[in-house]
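Private note to self, pasted from the team thread so I don't lose it. Backbone tokens:
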């Protein structure tokens, strides 16, 4: 598969809320976005006049959404996981899943399992069909080396569903056996976390995104490089790729045009290139050429990009953003 020749925005659907997470139905093309108002916003972005449907279910920020068969599973600031019928929006199950903010919710490719991570520093794996807790994975410290509360932002299943990865704020990454819950490997990604011990006694950054390569042998980690003024997202965008079994870094991509967090990573199924979405007060879309070990394309977005899905058959990315749902052509 050749590298994309085009990378440009084609549609901008304005919203009053901040869209924080997004998932796409492969069968219908419909988009489900979790938002700052505690609702799920559903829309067909390909429609001539897209109309949003709103479903309630959370008290505040919905920062994770996943599709598992006919079910849409969401999680957010209230620590709850909510199962609903993706067609009707009817809630079938609501669980007190975590003690703190749920940062990410993902489903295995076969729809059997749901994984959630939260600021209680636990990853939990659930049976997608009945909501039964299967594994409670504890491999991350509750506090940073500076004795401040840590955060667990990201998790990802491998394409074949056999592996599950998690990474915390200070860059400690763990790869787990998804079926047994056994830890298989750990490695460190410290360059995305900045601690200011003098002026502010505060920290910023931390890895925000994970993606397994199509063959499952590599793990990409996205975030932001070191920061001088920790009150701003002024670090350069940063992506590192590891051969996770040995913890060896194979690639390093440091933004030369854009700053801020890499919030979402998506591999192309060929394994030849990688998409990165994120930003600071503005946004950026980047295409990484893995064979050439270079950033192939990088384009400015109008606002911070929080999450994205990509349809290879059409070369279309739908992006959850600050007060917008954006459609980009990347092909």
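Design output:
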């Amino acid at each position: 598969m050749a590298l994309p020749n085009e990378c440009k925005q084609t549609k901008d659907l304005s919203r009053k809320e901040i869209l924080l997470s997004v998932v796409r139905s492969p069968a219908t093309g419909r988009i489900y976005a979790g938002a700052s108002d505690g609702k799920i916003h559903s829309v067909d972005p390909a429609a001539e006049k897209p109309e949003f449907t709103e479903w309630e279910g959370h008290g505040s920020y919905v920062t994770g959404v996943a599709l598992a068969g006919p079910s849409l599973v969401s999680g957010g600031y209230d620590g709850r996981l909510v199962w609903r019928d993706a067609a009707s929006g009817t809630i079938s199950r609501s669980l007190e899943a975590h003690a703190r903010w749920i940062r990410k919710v993902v489903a295995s490719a076969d729809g059997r399992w749901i994984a959630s991570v939260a600021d209680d520093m636990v990853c939990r794996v659930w049976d997608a069909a009945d909501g039964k807790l299967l594994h409670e994975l504890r491999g991350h410290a509750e506090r940073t080396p500076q004795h401040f509360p840590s955060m667990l932002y990201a998790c990802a299943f491998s394409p074949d569903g056999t592996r599950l990865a998690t990474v915390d704020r200070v860059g400690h990454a763990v790869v787990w056996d998804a079926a047994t819950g056994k830890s298989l490997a750990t490695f460190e990604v410290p360059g995305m976390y900045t601690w200011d011990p003098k002026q502010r006694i505060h920290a910023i950054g931390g890895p925000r995104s994970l993606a397994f390569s199509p063959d499952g042998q590599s793990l990409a980690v996205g975030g932001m490089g070191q920061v001088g003024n920790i009150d701003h997202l002024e670090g350069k965008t940063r992506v590192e790729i590891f051969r996770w079994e040995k913890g060896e870094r194979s690639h390093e991509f440091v933004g030369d045009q854009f700053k801020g967090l890499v919030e979402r990573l998506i591999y192309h199924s060929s394994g030849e290139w990688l998409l990165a979405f994120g930003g600071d007060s503005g946004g950026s879309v980047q295409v990484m050429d893995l064979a050439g070990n270079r950033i192939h394309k990088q384009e400015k977005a109008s606002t911070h990009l929080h999450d994205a899905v990509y349809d290879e058959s059409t070369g279309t990315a739908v992006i959850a953003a600050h007060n917008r749902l954006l459609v980009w052509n990347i092909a």
